[in-house]
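Why predict the complex rather than its parts? Because the way molecules touch one another can change local conformation, and only a joint prediction can capture that. The input here totals 617 residues.
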Amino acid sequence: MILKYLLEKEFKQFRRNPIFPRLMVAFPILIIFVFPWVTTFEVQNIKVTVVDDDNSTLSHRLTHEIENSRYFNLVGAEPSYQLGLADVEKGTADVVLDIPRDFEKNMIRRSGSNIQISANAVNGIKGNIGSSYLNAIVAQFATKIASEHGLKVQPAVNVITQNRFNEYLDYKKFMIPALITMVLILLCGFFPTLNIVSEKEIGTIEQINVTPVGKASFIIAKLIPYWAMGLIVFTVCFFLAWLTYGFAPQGNVLLIYLDAVLFIMFMSGFGLVVSNNSATMQQAMFVMFFCIMVFILMSGLFTPIHSMPQWAQDIAFFNPPRYYIEIMRSVFLKGSNFMENWFSYMMLAIFDLLINFWAILSYRKQS
Amino acid sequence: MNDEMGNKVIIAENLTKKFGNFTAVDHITFEVERGEIFGFLGANGAGKTTAMRMFCGLSRPTEGKGSVGGFDVRTQAEQIKKNIGYMSQKFSLYEDLKVWENIRLFAGIYGVKEGEIKSRSEELLHRLGLYEERDSFVKSLPLGWKQKLAFSVAIFHHPKIVFLDEPTGGVDPIARRQFWELIYEAADQGITIFVTTHYMDEAEYCNRVSIMVDGRIDALDTPRNLKEQFGTTDMDGVFRALARKAKRGD
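Output of the joint prediction:
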């Protein structure tokens, strides 16, 4: 059985590589201990400048209210709106809150007043979320004042949002499955990409090509170590996430593993296709880098696919990582079963067959 | 194997390889007999390596016919590969594998039996004087030893023919001498040797020699006949007389 000798070779070479085994250790640590804290979309520390033209008890109370919120830092008070905007331009403030003259009088007598909020939307997420947080605080404040003074509050529809499956909108919970996906894409994608093409650069492939080794045996021997590596890294990541954050999957662990196995098989097969079709490592790296950008940005990892324009959704239909992520989120967070995800599993399996078949075909022993 | 071919283990008939407009190998026709040491000479860029790669089933001919060990180079490349050994110009064993691991890998690929691999590689390592180095990584060996190891790996599975592409490039005269002793040993076992070289003293060791100029074979005979034909005392003179006509540079 030739495969045995080829596998021995591949595993030995992987183990002796000066960088790969270290990356295998470094990646899970970074992914679980560092990245969940930095990939948060929760906006905090929004810098607010208050322009208080009223200077009344009520306006001071509102200012305190904002200061006490954990989302805002009160960075200053300016005498005019113009100067407030100048703070935004200088970057010392993100949001200007303009409390108009007669704010107190209008609030109490007519139970209503205008307040202007100007946000710096250069960082769109921060500007948007910042001003809506501020809106919420002001609205709450207005209701409180109205009831204190026994004024009739206009009945308003009170929307209660309940975040199912991730009750407290914990971004770590949402990001960890996504981050693990990134590790699999990087490790199981890049390592095989460098493999065959490096044999071409060193010249060892020539000695292999002149032997009667079968194309399928050679490619399968290349793939198996990456499958093993991918599953080990995957397991370590999940175990660390459970130990550190107490996150355990809601659904069946076997379904998650099936998803991971299918995805790892796709990524490593894809890496070998790129490697087979490249003449130099540099070329292979750039091609892979380009493909990985597409894989990640069109996968729904960071932005929902359903918010993309129709043409982009059509492209995403042919993006295998998308199915992997869909299954992962639905099984991990919602506890879905196989039948709810059968389409995604099927798509992954089809891509696996195609790409690995292509990997064998694109390895040419004769030029 | 085809009976008509008799003792001819390598046959080339108008074998040609073109890369775009460039004709690397230009309609070469010759035969190599079983058990011969055949010297395949030519200046740099004359097309030796390209021709050799076609015989080894690494490169598909553009035109013409060729057969090695009775198998067609165009359609039966994988059959050919079972019957030959090949040592490329650039050292191409795995430098991150140990000496014994390289022997084991290639022996395994050629289908040598598990039990045989161990005993035969020990015997081989003793014979090459590499036994003490069996656990060293190949990258740490001196070039002369690497070449000897590469040759031994190429003939470990007892091929019918072995192709050697400048096997002694860059090694000292003593190591070259030792290398040729290995070649003679292999020839004594009945292995046909097809070898390219730039050393004219090595050309003298061959039974027959061909000289390639600009993709064509301009001369083919025993070293003695060639020297007579060109009226020189050594192969160097023959080579200079032919290579002077070359239009291709390095």
